Amino acid sequence: MATFEAHPEVPPKDASTVILVRDSESGPEVFLLRRVGGMAFAGGMTVFPGGGVDPQDADADVAWTGPPVSWWAERFGVDESRAKALVCAAVRETFEECGVLLAGPTADTVVADTAGYAQARKQLEAREFSFSEFLARENLVLRADLLRPWANWITPVGEGRRYDTRFFVAAAPAGQIADGETSEAAEVTWQTPAQAITDWIEGRTMLLPPTWSQLSSIGEYATVADVLAAEPEIPVILPTLYQEEDGSWRVRFPGQDPYYAAGAHPWGER
Questions:
Q1: 169: number of CA atoms within 13 Å, CB side?
Q2: Rounded-to-integer distance, Cα 19 and Cα 164, Å
Q3: In this structure, are residues 99 and 31 in contact, taking their beta carbons and an 8 Å threshold?
Q4: CA atoms of 35 and 18, how far apart (whole Å)
Q5: In angstroms, rounded to a whole number, what is the distance separating the alpha carbons of residues 33 and 5?
Q6: E-assigned strands of 82-239?
Q7: What are the Cα distances from residue 81, in Å, to 57, 59, 73, 176, 180?
Q8: What one-character DSSP code corresponds to residue 168?
Q9: What is the pTM assigned to this prediction?
Q10: Which cofactor does it need (predicted)?
């Protein structure tokens, strides 16, 4: 494991991450992807779909159903322009990274099969056109009502790339297939939170604290309906970097003890 080196303070960029959930006999499963090693941010880590807000997300003129932008602004403690950008980025990034599209032909329907949008998905990832242009061209309505606000984590000061990330949860739409057809994913899987945490404890994966924390919280619910019905408090969590006496780096965050007791962490040699 490479030794971590702290960087001067870098301002965080807005980002959105979506925890896709589905029911199974063992309880809710979540969709996870392992990022390609060597990527500038979280390379090799197992994460949920998501990414940075694009400037065009704030200006998106989209057909929208669900809680108004003002409701999202209040829940995430931001202005309406940022709230709109965060929701649009959540839907766009989920589509780009795993092919799940939280949109439909009408306000109360959702696309049943996204295979027909495969080329558009590649073009979106390449930024050949905007997400709002794609939705307008396909006469699709963004289903903000399929998303729920879940958490807010900011990358610690000292990291070379920093994000102010809002986490959402959403049920995987029936008929749609989440995949790994993106340049950023080495592999993808559906797992219960307990399975994902076991893989990490046994050294098969690496989880950053925000991912581990959300897996732990989702694991407390018995069904997807229970997850969607939850109304969690959303404090802003800004972990802090610190060095142990042996020179290794760690981050301090709420509820950290089980994380460090159970598995490896990615900031340096122990």
A1: 26
A2: 16
A3: no
A4: 15
A5: 26
A6: 103-104, 141-143, 147-154, 163-171, 185-191, 236-237
A7: 9, 8, 8, 30, 31
A8: E
A9: 0.91
A10: Mn(2+); Mg(2+)
5's tokens = 């080196």
In the block, residue with structure tokens 């780096």: 249
- The answer to whether the beta carbons of residues 110 and 146 sit under 8 Å apart is yes
- Residue (of 33, 67, 95) closest to 231 by Cα position: 67
- d(C-alpha 92, C-alpha 124), whole Å: 8
Quote the tokens at residue 167. Answer: 């986490």
Q: Which amino acid is at 137?
A: R
Instruction: Extract the tokens encoding 260.
Output: 């460090």
Over residues 145-191, the pLDDT tens digits come to 999 999 999 999 888 889 999 999 999 999 999 998 876 666 899 99
* pLDDT (tens place) for every residue of the chain, 270 residues total: 344 455 567 899 999 999 999 999 999 999 999 876 555 555 578 999 999 999 888 777 899 999 999 999 999 999 999 999 999 999 999 999 999 999 999 999 999 999 999 999 999 988 899 999 999 999 999 999 999 999 999 999 888 889 999 999 999 999 999 998 876 666 899 999 999 999 999 988 889 999 999 999 999 999 999 999 999 999 999 999 888 787 777 889 999 989 988 755 665 443
Q: What does the alpha-carbon distance between residue 79 and residue 221 come to, in Å, rounded to a whole number?
A: 31
Counts for the chain of helices (H) and strands (E), in that order: 9, 13
- Give the residue from 230, 227, 201 showing the smallest Cα distance to 27: 227
Q: How far is CA 159 from the centre of its chain?
A: 19
Sign of CA dihedral 156, 188, 219, 231: positive
